[in-house]
Amino acid sequence: MIELLKRVPLFSDLTDEQLEIVSSITSRREYAPHTILFQQGDPGHTFCIVLRGAVKVYTSNKKGQQKILSVFKSGDNFGELALIDGKPRSATAETLEDTVLLTVTSESFHLLLRAHYDIAKQVMIQLCGRLRSTNGYVYDLTFLDAPSRIVKNIVRIAQQQGERRGDKIYIRTAFDPDAMSGLAGVHRNVLEQVIRDLEHQRILTLQPTEYTLDVSKLFQSPYVS
């Protein structure tokens, strides 16, 4: 458990003793695919760490159209904002596959922050990182065109989840067009056009259970100026 918690950015700089304290207030929960963990507007009382699986966080309008804000995988964490400010959830969270979470309740979380300054400091650092990421996302939506946003998100996911060998990055999971179109803020047909072009230029190679990004070809393409 300690080694797992060290992978969580929120706790990565804590000592083993502090991580033992964190571990003592967690609960393990298992969920089937497409389980709604919480909905936008629900009271916020649980902080989550992904042990295994994937969770998408999104907002939706009255027509049921979704805007994916993020996809969390093993080692990621989410749900801390509602714990800290006491306001309702700002988005909906849903599992994408069989998922195992470590959860911390609001009461335990507040006790932890009050008792351990170093842990509280890491929470603040993590929140600052999320804010910077959000600012970057707003910038992209404002100033980058749709193809540039798609390519930027493919590169970001490849860097986070991929394994680099030479000029290629191998991402050992199926390419998810719905998640990617949501992250890039584009319609599905626009995404498909860009993906076809990337495949034609052999920048991107899609297979049923994985995909590959050729970095050298990408930097020779019009997508990188």
Automatic annotation (TrEMBL):
Residues 10-130 form the Cyclic nucleotide-binding domain. Keywords: Activator. InterPro entries: cNMP-bd_CS, cNMP-bd_dom, cNMP-bd_dom_sf, Env_Response_Regulators, RmlC-like_jellyroll, WH-like_DNA-bd_sf, WH_DNA-bd_sf. GO terms for cellular component: cytosol. One of its GO terms (molecular function) is DNA-binding transcription factor activity. It comes from the Bacteria. It holds the Pfam family cNMP_binding. The keyword Phosphoprotein does not apply. SMART domains: cNMP. PANTHER family: CRP FAMILY TRANSCRIPTIONAL REGULATORY PROTEIN (PTHR24567), HTH-TYPE TRANSCRIPTIONAL REGULATOR ARCR (PTHR24567:SF74). This is Crp/Fnr family transcriptional regulator. It comes from Paenibacillus alvei. The lineage of its organism: Bacteria, Bacillati, Bacillota, Bacilli, Bacillales.
